[in-house]
Design brief:
Aspartate Aminotransferase, domain 2, about 40% helix, alpha/beta, Aspartate Aminotransferase, domain 1, about 375 residues, single chain
Length: about 375
């Protein structure tokens, strides 16, 4: 049983065939325009920019904000390394902040003490589909006049006090990788209310060719080939049309796991705060080995022996060898991040996952606890 599969139907097939039959398979096609417009509207913002993956979306956001070598950016320690990679591309120093114990997102109470005169932005990550505590973060950002980059790679459709992820910061980025709620196989999106930032992203995305000007192969800046193809955009646009159904599917899967495992000692779930809508991109659990009677590694092996695939939770930036190799030093302790890295994994979570299969996974976990 795979940990995640995309949910496709006839709508995706029709859009792909239409893009293919149009003859326009590279970037700049009608589906790029439709996806950018419709996804921006879905996120309750004015501008969308399609790109080839979520990591380059963050890189373009950094370039658009004119962050540069020697700057510092506040980042969550418990996170995939991809946003930190984007900072490292530009020689920017990531300043690590510990996670909250309930949501596993960046702890707002620890951000202000991490700010220095070199701090130029705050990057938040809505991990596993739960939005960050944005009022607290925005208050700090406004106090120090710092832009907020939303890494919403896992949070399509997540909400904070009724506002959608993507509308909560200065600029936001999304991934469209195959395990995301909506996918184009590979792909990414940038959204913002700022026309200036959106145009900068479009400019850098396409090798720094002038926007709307003649292509005379004169380049004023370092640009990138970060475009999304029309074929990828067709797939993502068709997925966007059923995003509410796909989000509901992830939440249904999570609710069923919780119901079946609620009496299982030592199993913990990511919270859903009253002010937020968690889309539960993945149903992630933690295992307290003392209370459960088995470790995360024991469970991982037990499930894979039954052909049930899982994935471990992220290893904190404080433990990444590449950070140390590149001279990034941090003497702080990160007990929440370390606990999640050492004791967490996520379970099969496809939007269309049947209750029978959720029951199979849950029964396997209960079986291990009883052995």
């Amino acid at each position: 049983m795979p940990v995640c599969e995309p949910t496709y139907g006839s709508e995706e097939r029709e859009a792909l065939i239409d893009a293919f039959d149009s003859g326009w398979v590279s970037a700049g096609g009608k589906y790029n325009d439709r996806l950018e417009t419709d996804f921006a509207e879905y996120c309750q913002v004015d501008h969308g920019v399609s790109v080839c993956n979520g990591t380059v979306a963050i890189h373009l956001a950094i370039r658009a904000l004119e962050l540069s070598a020697g700057d510092e950016v506040i980042v969550p320690n418990h996170n995939g390394i991809y946003g930190v990679y984007a900072l490292m591309y530009e020689g920017i120093t990531p300043i690590l902040v510990e996670a909250e114990a309930l949501t596993w997102n960046i702890d707002p109470d620890l951000i202000e003490k991490a700010i220095t005169p070199k701090t130029k932005a705050i990057m938040v990550v809505h991990l596993y589909g739960h939005p960050c505590d944005m009022d607290a973060i925005t208050k700090i950002a406004e106090k120090y006049n710092l832009p907020v980059i939303e890494d919403a790679a896992q949070a399509h459709g997540a909400e904070y006090k009724g506002r959608r992820a993507g509308s909560l910061g200065t600029i936001a980025t999304f991934s469209l990788f195959a395990n995301k709620v909506i996918t184009s196989g590979e792909g990414g999106l940038i959204v913002t209310d700022s026309e200036n930032l959106a145009n900068k992203c479009r400019y850098y995305r396409n090798q720094c060719f002038p926007l709307g000007g003649p292509r005379h192969f004169i380049h004023e800046d370092i640009g990138y080939n970060y475009r999304m193809t029309n074929v990828q955009a067709a797939l993502a646009w068709a997925q966007l049309g059923k995003i509410d159904e796909l989000v509901s599917g992830r939440r249904r899967v999570n609710a069923e796991y919780r119901r079946l495992l609620e009496e299982m000692p030592g199993i913990g779930f990511q919270a859903e705060m009253s002010w937020g809508k968690n889309i539960f991109w993945m149903t992630a659990i933690t295992i307290d080995p003392i209370r459960a009677g088995f470790s995360r590694d024991d469970l991982e092996k037990h499930l894979i022996d039954q052909n049930i695939q899982t994935r471990r939770l992220f290893v904190g930036m404080n433990r990444q060898p590449v950070m140390k190799a590149k001279g990034y030093k941090c003497e702080l302790k990160f007990p929440v991040s370390d606990f999640l890295a050492d004791n967490g994994l996520y379970l099969p979570s496809s939007s269309h996952l049947e209750e029978e299969k959720i029951g199979t996974v849950s029964s396997a976990i209960i079986e291990l606890g009883a052995s």
